[in-house]
Amino acid sequence: MHWIWRDGSSASPRFIIFLFVPLSIGLAYLIAFMNTLYVVKNDEKYKKLTQFWGRLFLLNFAVGVVTGIMQEFQFGMNWADYSRYVGAVFGGPLAVEALVSFFLESTFLGIWIFGWDKLPKKVHLAAIWLVAIGATLSALWILAANSFMQEPVGYVINNGRAEMSNFFALLGNKQLWVEFPHVIYGALCTGGMFVVGISAYKMLRKHQTEAFRASFSIGMVVTLVGSILTAFAGHEQAQHLMESQPMKMAAAEALWETTGEHAPWTVVAAIDPGAKQNAAKLEVPYLLSVLSYNKLSGSVPGMNELQAQYEQEYGPGNYIPPVRTTFWSFRVMLVSGMLMILVALLGVWKMYRGKVQNSPRFLWWMMPAMALPWLGNLSGWVMTEVGRQPWTVFGLAKTADGVSPLVSSGMVLTSLIGFTVVYGLLAAALVYLILHFVRKDDMAADASHKTHANPGNPALPML
Amino acid sequence: MLETLWFILVTVLFIGFFFLEGFDFGVGMLTKIIGRSDTDRRVMINTIGPVWDGNEVWLITAGGAIFAAFPNWYATLFSGFYMALFLMLIALIGRGVAFEFRSKLESARWRATWDWIIFFGSLLPPLLWGVALANLMRGVPIDQTTNYVGSFWDLLSPYSVLAGLSILLLFLLHGSLFLSLKTTGDLRDRALGFAKRIGAWTSGALLVFVVLSYFETDMFTRHGIFPGMVPVSAGFALLSVPFLIKAGRDGWAFIMTGLTIVLSTVTVFMSLFPRVMISSLNPDWSLTIHNASSNEYTLKVMTIVACSVLPFVLAYQIWTYWVFRKRVTPADHLDY
Prior knowledge:
Helix content of chain A is 71%, strand content 6%.
């Protein structure tokens, strides 16, 4: 079970990326938008907001950006044989990501942070937009690489390895264009809910209520639009999955046997992977056909049939991913997404009626609701990565064959523990700092040009 | 042909990284060496504040370029130098976050903690890169299957540790000269004083390293590309630094340490060419640009991308240095 540690040690950087980077991308757009309002309306309120959210953004970005180095290095460290086998195609998007996106976002973020007094307003504004675009492009290229793992295209097997044969096929991968929008819309929700939750706290505490009502509204609208688009993009992705990775879909549905003409959707099930069956389940008739094909009829293949099919195609072996994990992560993602849409609908309705500031209970609930996008992002990531097992690259390379043959388990375990501990500590420091800033009611003092911020801590209860 | 071009491009990316992060690392270490107060340290960090992150991307891009253009090199290097890279990643991660977090609370303990992380996070990477480069030049145990069969401890020898110390000193010198250009008053005097003090040490360490290289590596004896004037020029550039400082030409002194870094990097890569990793077990098992490279098509695509994007990167990074060309003083807005 050597490779499980490997998988852990290379999966943990990617897991860490999904903790910090969606917030960076989403928040970058929200801040760019607030900064634009400041430049267009010339209203100091928006400058204060931009600087307040910018400060929180930077704290998170600092932790997220260093994962870029780890991501670029960890394939060679933990997956040497994998890198040798697919590097001639897989390495391309990663190099382009660094060249096109990392340079752009890192350089212009520096310009934006330090350039408030040094650049014309509009040039300064362009810098934050370039940061947002750079972060988005970064997601595009890393997902192009990930899509190759889900659905390899644009390569030929030559000299005993996969070699790139068509760059545009790689970039035009159908999987990429269902996965990328889903992730970006999810990132917008993450940024939106973050702004909503903290604005709600600020309104409850009566800190600069007018300014935070504005950011609350912006965040709420972005969350509403983002969450609905995420759902549609997700639906499209699921339909694509039916064609490209039916095994993942079957596992996500805990579907052992191929369904009849009208496939029901399983709400919950007691899964028994040993016996390859479900002890009990709750179903909604027709719904899986609708989800899979947009119509009431259409049979969906089950895992047992697919297993037999893959054995014929790829030789003996177990091609069924961990079913429970895939099934339940899919449901956690769905529930958190649906809840987010409901929250946003309710929020926008209350805003429209002008009742937000009179609903302290609703505002209070926005704080725990901040967790929803993270639940969605992480469980979605778990579903798509675990559901792909036993493959690293679907149909091409198995996870167990890709490891670095001469890197010992001890080293892998050391790095896994090391990175986990370091990121645990950094995440704790990050949360502490965010709470510290949010609890203070001196947005103006924070943003103003003072060498030292007010050291006095307002005696406010913990969040 | 394209393989050679990519070897050159990788060299260029490492030059960018060592030149730019060289002074970043130097400044990071100097915060503890010549920085006496919290304001000193804040000023020093702000001299690299707008640029260090972009500078670090040169390293990330070098990693990505090696992956795309020479997958076998990438796999062998990164899995072979596993623990060294792990330590470097931890250092870079801690340092990057520390720059952002250190000033966010007033607490002295909070700041001291992050300041130490900045110090060690800036100290460890130059040491490790020196060790790595020395091992690349000398060769490491690589078996028939192109896997590294040694351990982390095999990378450490007097020769490689000396390489680490030399690079550390060179970056300290580079960083203190950078500070002399970006700060004012007492802090600037201290930076210059420090540069004067370590100039001779740096030259001495590098000289011993070059002499040892004669015995430890084949760079002087191998038929291939003779580095010739390149290392000699690097030596002269470094030797000119103390005189330039004495003459008050700080800018030129900085350019000369930069030139030393550039030419030394070129020397290392020239002495490798066309090999990328030398096997100490059997010369036939060495990785070269030919047996480690990607296919023709991938290289072609990557060439087009790199050649169309890099000029823009260079342009906007140079523009950044122009925007932040002024010296940083304690009177500036420092609290970012």
